[in-house]
DNA sequence: GCCGTTTTCGGCCCGACTGTTTTCAGTCG
């Protein structure tokens, strides 16, 4: 018996109970029990007090005991016998919840998608009390859509959708202020929808204009305070727009940024103090509603530091809030150490990239073009590297407010050798080693390649260590814990590639790396000036792993960077 | 079903929207 089995059992029980139309709080209790186990870092054998955990009581405890003693749960078995399996997909139909599904089953013996469709088509659903013609039509419509609905979109796709919507919002003069909220603001790897908070005195005008300018596939809801639509923007995606007044902005932004669990925890905290949080403000004990200038003020009101959106996850961040002061912020970043220029496959000259980095207030930066193996990217030969070094050194003399270091993003070749020899590498300030080829090699071969780079005394950092592209490919599947061990042993930096296509390393590995005492660099891997701005979302992603300022080498002052990285 | 520095009973985060009602239930985020 392991913890996962218990968690899955609780989730199944909750699902079946929901289909029976059970009390939502009872259903929630099983989900909560599953969540308690999920959040507990200990393995089952390390937990001698599992039945005493908060959230585990008589009912859920009996399930655990059953599983431990017999390997199966009587309760789950009963439920599985009672509830037809065909009902499960019905919960995926928008507009259908436990209550309605239970009613449908009771009144018409509905036990599957097929029987529900047949019942709708023969107009049997509309005569059930509480249902009507419109509901019947809506169910039928949703059944047709089922399966065609897109799943979650990767963050890089959501990013371009958000930018396009923001462009439209800027064009509506009745909007005084707006912000994206939701999972994109939290820098989640994938999103199922996009949310916007809009400050306006004329919500109905804004709503009408939005409905004109947006590529709306379907309008889900259109009221005075919100517009919910499905947009057709290359991909189908749900979008929510909330209309609020200026003084409601901060609490509305907080509310619609979520996460859901974070909000629940905040509201419980408020409640314990006799107050009530809603998207419109904080209702005090005397009934007056307090509003805030900013989210920071809102958190401060509850004696909490500003919790960055990307850290608002399961609610435990509120308990650990005092640790947030040590976590890296975008303002701490002093340089970007991975970017490309026209020398290889970048879109801008070295000088243009330098100017862009100066504008961003960096004190230092590294130019890291590709190497000869990567022909498609116009990778540099040793000769070209040497002339690039010359150009960079010359350029560097022109600027006294930024230090430009000579680097490279060197390929680790399929046979486990490196693209440049040591003589050349030692002429460079900062050497990135990367895998861009033969992703389908065995893990053993991949690790041999990575080890070759790790062992080399001139290599400073391994870039995008797994090669993943979010929502598109898994990468070359390295043994990351082993990689982290080597990084510690050979004193190498691991990259958090902040390009939203990658976010590589992933959160779980970043946590592991920091735990092991390995340094992380957050870089943009920019191939164009505007991509340098991915530093911000990259840092947001780093915050998810609670990376401390000291762990992230980009926060180090120039002198420390020179001492501990460049001259190492 | 779970929980208790007001509580062992009566809450459980809070509000918008829709559709089916004629004051509210269900669903959603």
Automatic annotation (TrEMBL):
<feature type="domain" description="DNA-directed DNA polymerase X">
    <location>
        <begin position="1"/>
        <end position="313"/>
    </location>
</feature>
<keyword id="KW-0269">Exonuclease</keyword>
<dbReference type="InterPro" id="IPR004013">
    <property type="entry name" value="PHP_dom"/>
</dbReference>
<dbReference type="Pfam" id="PF14792">
    <property type="entry name" value="DNA_pol_B_palm"/>
</dbReference>
<dbReference type="InterPro" id="IPR003141">
    <property type="entry name" value="Pol/His_phosphatase_N"/>
</dbReference>
<dbReference type="InterPro" id="IPR029398">
    <property type="entry name" value="PolB_thumb"/>
</dbReference>
<dbReference type="InterPro" id="IPR003583">
    <property type="entry name" value="Hlx-hairpin-Hlx_DNA-bd_motif"/>
</dbReference>
<keyword id="KW-0808">Transferase</keyword>
<keyword id="KW-0235">DNA replication</keyword>
<feature type="domain" description="Helix-hairpin-helix DNA-binding motif class 1">
    <location>
        <begin position="123"/>
        <end position="142"/>
    </location>
</feature>
<dbReference type="InterPro" id="IPR028207">
    <property type="entry name" value="DNA_pol_B_palm_palm"/>
</dbReference>
<dbReference type="InterPro" id="IPR010996">
    <property type="entry name" value="HHH_MUS81"/>
</dbReference>
<dbReference type="GO" id="GO:0004527">
    <property type="term" value="F:exonuclease activity"/>
</dbReference>
<dbReference type="Pfam" id="PF14520">
    <property type="entry name" value="HHH_5"/>
</dbReference>
<dbReference type="InterPro" id="IPR022311">
    <property type="entry name" value="PolX-like"/>
</dbReference>
<keyword id="KW-0237">DNA synthesis</keyword>
<keyword id="KW-0378">Hydrolase</keyword>
<dbReference type="InterPro" id="IPR043519">
    <property type="entry name" value="NT_sf"/>
</dbReference>
<keyword id="KW-0548">Nucleotidyltransferase</keyword>
<dbReference type="InterPro" id="IPR002054">
    <property type="entry name" value="DNA-dir_DNA_pol_X"/>
</dbReference>
<dbReference type="InterPro" id="IPR016195">
    <property type="entry name" value="Pol/histidinol_Pase-like"/>
</dbReference>
<dbReference type="InterPro" id="IPR010994">
    <property type="entry name" value="RuvA_2-like"/>
</dbReference>
<protein>
    <recommendedName>
        <fullName>DNA-directed DNA polymerase</fullName>
        <ecNumber>2.7.7.7</ecNumber>
    </recommendedName>
</protein>
<feature type="domain" description="Helix-hairpin-helix DNA-binding motif class 1">
    <location>
        <begin position="48"/>
        <end position="67"/>
    </location>
</feature>
<dbReference type="InterPro" id="IPR047967">
    <property type="entry name" value="PolX_PHP"/>
</dbReference>
<dbReference type="InterPro" id="IPR022312">
    <property type="entry name" value="DNA_pol_X"/>
</dbReference>
<keyword id="KW-0239">DNA-directed DNA polymerase</keyword>
<dbReference type="InterPro" id="IPR037160">
    <property type="entry name" value="DNA_Pol_thumb_sf"/>
</dbReference>
<feature type="domain" description="Helix-hairpin-helix DNA-binding motif class 1">
    <location>
        <begin position="88"/>
        <end position="107"/>
    </location>
</feature>
<keyword id="KW-0540">Nuclease</keyword>
<feature type="domain" description="Polymerase/histidinol phosphatase N-terminal">
    <location>
        <begin position="335"/>
        <end position="414"/>
    </location>
</feature>
<dbReference type="Pfam" id="PF14716">
    <property type="entry name" value="HHH_8"/>
</dbReference>
<dbReference type="InterPro" id="IPR027421">
    <property type="entry name" value="DNA_pol_lamdba_lyase_dom_sf"/>
</dbReference>
<dbReference type="Pfam" id="PF14791">
    <property type="entry name" value="DNA_pol_B_thumb"/>
</dbReference>
<dbReference type="InterPro" id="IPR050243">
    <property type="entry name" value="PHP_phosphatase"/>
</dbReference>
<dbReference type="Pfam" id="PF02811">
    <property type="entry name" value="PHP"/>
</dbReference>
């Amino acid at each position: 018996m392991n913890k996962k089995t218990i968690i899955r059992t609780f989730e199944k029980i909750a699902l079946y109970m929901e289909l029976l139309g059970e009390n939502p709080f009872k259903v929630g209790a099983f989900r909560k029990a599953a969540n308690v186990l999920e959040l507990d870092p200990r393995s089952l054998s390390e937990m001698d007090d599992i039945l005493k955990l908060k959230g585990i009581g008589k009912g859920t405890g009996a399930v655990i005991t059953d599983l431990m003693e017999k390997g199966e749960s009587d309760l789950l078995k009963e439920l599985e016998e009672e509830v037809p399996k065909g009902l499960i997909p019905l919960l995926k139909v928008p507009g259908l919840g436990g209550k309605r599904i239970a009613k449908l089953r009771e009144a018409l013996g509905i036990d599957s998608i097929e029987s529900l469709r047949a019942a709708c088509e023969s107009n049997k659903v509309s005569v059930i009390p509480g249902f009507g013609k419109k509901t019947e039509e809506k169910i039928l419509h949703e059944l047709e859509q089922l399966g065609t609905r897109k799943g979650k979109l990767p963050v890089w796709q959501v990013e371009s959708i958000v930018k396009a919507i923001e462009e439209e919002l800027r064009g509506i003069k009745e909007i005084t202020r707006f912000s994206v909220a939701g999972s994109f603001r939290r820098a989640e790897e994938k999103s199922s929808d996009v949310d916007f908070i809009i400050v306006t005195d004329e919500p109905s005008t804004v709503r009408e204009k939005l409905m004109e300018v947006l590529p709306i596939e379907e309008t889900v809801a259109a009221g005075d305070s919100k517009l919910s639509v499905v947009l057709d923007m290359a991909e189908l995606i749900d979008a929510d727009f909330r209309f609020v007044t200026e003084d409601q902005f901060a609490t509305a932004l907080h509310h619609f940024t979520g996460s859901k669990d974070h909000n629940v925890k905040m509201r419980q905290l408020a409640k314990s103090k006799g107050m009530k949080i809603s998207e419109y403000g904080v209702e005090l004990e005397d009934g007056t509603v307090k509003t805030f200038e900013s989210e920071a003020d809102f958190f401060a009101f509850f004696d909490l530091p500003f919790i960055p959106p990307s850290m608002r996850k399961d609610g435990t961040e509120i308990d650990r809030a005092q640790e947030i002061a040590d976590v890296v912020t975008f303002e701490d970043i002093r340089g970007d150490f991975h970017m490309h220029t026209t020398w290889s496959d970048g879109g801008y000259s070295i000088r243009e990239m330098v100017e862009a980095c100066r504008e961003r207030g960096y004190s230092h930066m590294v130019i890291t073009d590709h190497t000869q193996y990567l022909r498609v990217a116009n990778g540099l030969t040793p000769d070209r590297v040497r002339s690039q070094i010359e150009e960079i050194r010359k350029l560097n003399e022109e600027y006294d407010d930024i230090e430009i270091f000579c680097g490279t993003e060197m390929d680790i070749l399929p046979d486990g050798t490196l693209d440049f020899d040591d003589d050349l590498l030692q002429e460079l300030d900062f050497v990135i080693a990367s895998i861009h080829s033969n992703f389908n090699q065995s893990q053993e071969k991949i690790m041999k390649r990575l080890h070759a780079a790790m062992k080399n005394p001139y290599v400073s950092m391994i870039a995008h260590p797994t090669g993943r592209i979010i929502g598109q490919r898994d990468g070359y599947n390295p043994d990351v814990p082993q990689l982290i061990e080597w990084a510690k042993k050979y004193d190498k930096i691991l990259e958090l590639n902040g390009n939203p296509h990658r976010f590589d390393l992933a959160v779980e590995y970043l946590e592991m790396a920091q735990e092991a005492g390995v340094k992380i660099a957050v870089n943009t891997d920019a191939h164009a000036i505007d991509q340098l701005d991915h530093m911000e979302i990259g840092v947001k992603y780093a915050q998810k792993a609670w990376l401390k300022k000291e762990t992230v080498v980009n926060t180090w002052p120039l002198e420390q960077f020179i001492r501990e990285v460049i001259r190492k």
